[in-house]
Amino acid sequence: MHICLWSPMQRGEFDISTPGAHPCYRKIAPCGNINASSSSPRTSLVAGSKYNVEFQQNLNHYYTGKPGALDISFAVGLNPSENDFRVLHSFSDYNSMNQITQTNFSIQINLPNEPCDECILRVRYLSNNPGEDDHGTTFHQCSDVKLTPNLLNTLKKDQEHKDELIENINKQRNDDPHDCCVPESYVNAFFHSIPAIDYRSEGLIFYDKKAQQMRVTVTVNGGRGNTTYDGVFDMWMNFTSGYQYYFNRNNGKCDLYGLDLWNDWCFGNKYNQSEDFVAADVSCSSPFGPTHKCNQWRNGEFLFETYASDRCLPSSISRPSGERIIYIAGGTGPIPPSTFTPNPACIKQKTVKHASPQWMKLHF
What PANTHER family does UniProt report for this protein, alphabetically (predicted)? Predict the structure, then answer.
């Protein structure tokens, strides 16, 4: 849901130190209700050049009923209208299976070839999630930029045109017989690594479809600190009550979030996961499963793998950047209800850090 942009730097305040950061929550089009002036800070870029736009999806609100998308757009002017923006790149939202995620993206675009002194580069998250409809379901971040001329652009026109071809995310997709969902009740362990920022975590996932509850335990970078980068956490997600608790074991503090709608843990377009089937019965890329066979799906730069069996247990999720989540020791069967009982410190928590309009209608 939340989204923050740092390259080029967004208008106004900036903070990605925690999930659900307030500066990442800007919904009113076209620029989150934040206007600029001729004296506003402005990033100078070269017209017609390639540029890596870097931003973070600060919370994930994937909606299986109508999967959303993220896009990068451009407009000329100091404070242009919504109709002035043209999309340069778009890609599908992905199901992180957990609202409280912070996913960084670095997307290379081709900047327009026309110089301008006052123009805007914008990133949007079009969630399509009805649980997020307080001022619409789209989130905006705008950055003020200036495009300077480059005489070499004319000579590179033909090559640049090839590079400007945008991936066709919305191509015709057919249901594939390999599309599947995990068992209604299962537990597995995971390892998550992001080499670029020296991040590693490990933990357990408990999933119960009938009860519409999940629990995730995670230890980050050894778990000896109190921050999201080095702590030990429990997350309880009750989609019936609309609560998600985020408990820090090291300092005993608990944050309360409001949840959106339930997402089944599924793979493939048959279940509205915005994932195209790639291959069946290929060698698993996970170091824990090279002797096993896996099925693969792709959503943009995310490659999803499940073990090639009728149980559809996940094997890994990976990205070209080197980021990878590896799942091991998948098990099915009933989960004791006590597993989904939050820590007493969470039960006492009444302040909601983020609550969707749907949650507020149910509880206030």
Answer: CHITIN-BINDING TYPE-4 DOMAIN-CONTAINING PROTEIN
